[in-house]
Amino acid sequence: MESIRQKRINSLLQHDMAEVFRALAAAEFPGTLITVSKIRVTPDLGLARVYLSFFPIDRTQKAMEFIEEHAPRIKNELAGRVRHQLRVIPNLQYFADDSIEYEANIDRLLREGGENPFK
Questions:
Q1: Beta-bridge partners for 36
Q2: Which of 35, 37, 38, 56 could join 97 via S-S bond, C-beta 3.0 to 4.6 A?
Q3: Hey, what domains does the chain have and what are their CATH numbers?
Q4: Side-chain half-sphere exposure of 85, counting CA atoms within 13 A
């Protein structure tokens, strides 16, 4: 269970990471929407797991490779935004969040009808 402090830091980091990725997408990936789906900070506040979703989906792999390659620069930009709220910036791990793709697939299957797999 997350503490109140973790929830506040998750919210703060999610808001500021969204700003960082909006600028990054405009500069490096025009026509691509990068969304910070969620952020989960460990109890010791040393690590933050950043879940990202991309639109269009076919650019996910290329964008994730770029983000991993430029992780120190991204962390530095984030540090500049939250320097007055946090003493130490957690290490960042990036994950592609495929929940939107999963939901779209379920929606497509339901619309197509076909045989019910639960019978």
A1: 52
A2: 37
A3: 4-112 (3.30.300.20)
A4: 15
Biggest CA-to-CA distance, the chain: 57
pLDDT in tens, the chain (119 residues): 889 999 999 999 999 999 999 999 999 989 999 999 999 999 999 999 999 999 888 889 999 999 999 999 999 999 999 999 999 999 999 999 988 778 878 888 888 876 666 65
C-alpha span between 10 and 74 (Å, rounded)? 17
Q: Which residues contact 97 (CB under 8 A, 6 or more apart)?
A: 37, 38, 51, 52, 53
Give this prediction's pTM: 0.84
Cα separation, 60 vs 55, in Å, equals: 8
